[in-house]
Amino acid sequence: MEKKKVKYPVGEHSFPELRKGGYIYVDKTRYVHELIEQGKFIFLSRPRRFGKSLMLSTVESYFLGEKELFEGTWLGQHEQEWTQYPVLHFDMTETSGSEAISMNLYLNDRIAEYEEDYDLPDKSYLQDLGSRFSALIRGIFRKTGQQVVILIDEYDNGILETLDGSEQEKDAMSTVLRAFYKQPKAMTKYVKFCMVTGVARFASYTLFSGPNNYLDISMNPDYADICGITQQELVDNFKEGIMKIASEKNESFEEAVEDLRQKYDSYRFTRAYKKVYNPFSLLSAFVEGALDNFWIKSGTSKVFVKYLTRSEFDLLELEDMWVKREEMEGKYTPEDSIPLLFQTGYLTIKDERDAKLYRLGIPNGEVQSALVDQLMPAFMGISQKLFNTRLTDLQEKVQMGDVVGWIEDVKSLISTIPYQLFGPVDSLSKEKDKQQESKDKSIASYERTFHIIVHLIFNLLKVEARSEISVAGGRIDMVVSTKKYVYVIEFKLDGTPQEALKQIDDKGYLLPWHSDGRKVFKIGIVFSSKDRNISSYKFIGE
Asked: Burial code of 341-353, b = ≥16 C-beta within 10 A, e = fewer?
């Protein structure tokens, strides 16, 4: 008998469709019970395509009393009563959300559908959206005798789509949404349960009347993996997918797991030391049998990219920064892009101190590639097409072993980066009269800046590029590997290539690749703090 093919629910966020369609399902139903026990008004923030919509759909099926869909799940085994309630479900991504008028039309249309479903009078004559919504809630309660369940998915779609718009456009959108969102709280005696999801933390916006009535579980450690896939869930549920990856890459099961971890894991949303994979990218990788940047290709808002490129932040500091919790939960502004980067999934929690101070960093290889691929062309002031052309040329030279060619290409790319990304031009010269320790710190900071730039560029080339590799003799700055070549690179600031090559020899950096079979290049690259670029280099092939 032919083995049944595994069905991966890529982009499927309907719980009934997923269960009826025979898709593989990671059981998160325990959280439905916990959410209901937790309170009446719940808010959850997670990045796009992280499973929020599926969780809301699961909650909807529970309140609709669809017991048969939960067979074999945690909730199916533990729930005793399956009472059916009226459910109002609003998905704010069903409208473009770019204009207040389109958002208003969408919400009125959805209310009209529910008026028809429950055989209620058409209240379109009410000019105020909030009044019509409250009349719907009250009317359903009186019609059915049951409190109403309200689910609002991606509540902030209108906020994000007008992020880079005029103040007039933002105010118009806020006016529409505020009239709608304040109703559940105002109608609390008619409401059984209300859950709102989104990317932006709603406490920073005045869309909800009395936001304290909503319990924000976004950073609650008890809900660390309510969305996303844990390491254990990966190996327990996706063995076939992992083996498919392993087969395509001609590697072991364990090696494939490690590849997936580096590419898609390490999202951490709470102080609990529990990390999750991006579910959309993970499932897409299993379908394709290959690792790619699926999440970012699924549709990043152009407004988001445009907004970030005019924001005041240092792309090169995103690898490691300590911030206060309120900075992560704040409102999006051009002066402070940290809330946007954290809440949209471009930064994640790496460490924390006393639940007040958090160390943020880029989660994984996919996000790192996305940041560079989307933002570097904008920062460089060149088109995406030209940027990709230069990367393609660079990739060919790396694969061919043309060291001079690819170094010159990297030099050309760096030359287009604005000076402000590197900090003040004379920051090193100011250190001359200070203590040597301070000067050494300044030099180390500059070396790291140039190092990160090169690392980010190589990250886009679909070659293996690793930094700060520990070996017996010390730490190698960077190693780039292809099928035929290994490039062992040491960076120096305002030094000489000979010094860099000597360090490679003295510390035995080439030893791990002596019996590798590939040609190994040791390369010394010198950056100039004055010119902000590669000033000299030297290499030797062995």
From this structure: bbbbbbbbbbebe
Answer yes or no: are the C-beta atoms of 342 and 324 closer than 8 Å. no
* Backbone torsions φ then ψ of 240, nearest 5 degrees: -65, -40
φ/ψ of 396, rounded to 5, equals -60, -40
Please state, in angstroms and rounded to a whole number, the distance separating the CA atoms of residues 517 and 515.
Answer: 6
In contact, 486 and 518? CB cutoff 8 Å:
yes
Question: At a CB cut-off of 8 Å and minimum separation 6, what does 170 contact?
Answer: 162
d(CA 102, CA 146): 31
pTM to 2 decimal places: 0.79
Report helix, strand or coil for 414.
helix
Distances (CA, A) of 230 to 37, 156, 224, 282, 340: 24, 27, 10, 11, 24
Strands 87-91 and 148-153: parallel
pLDDT along the chain (542 residues), means of 10: 79 94 96 94 93 97 97 95 96 83 93 97 90 96 97 88 80 88 91 94 61 82 96 96 93 93 93 94 94 77 61 63 88 79 90 90 83 68 77 91 94 72 46 51 62 75 78 85 92 92 93 89 91 91 86
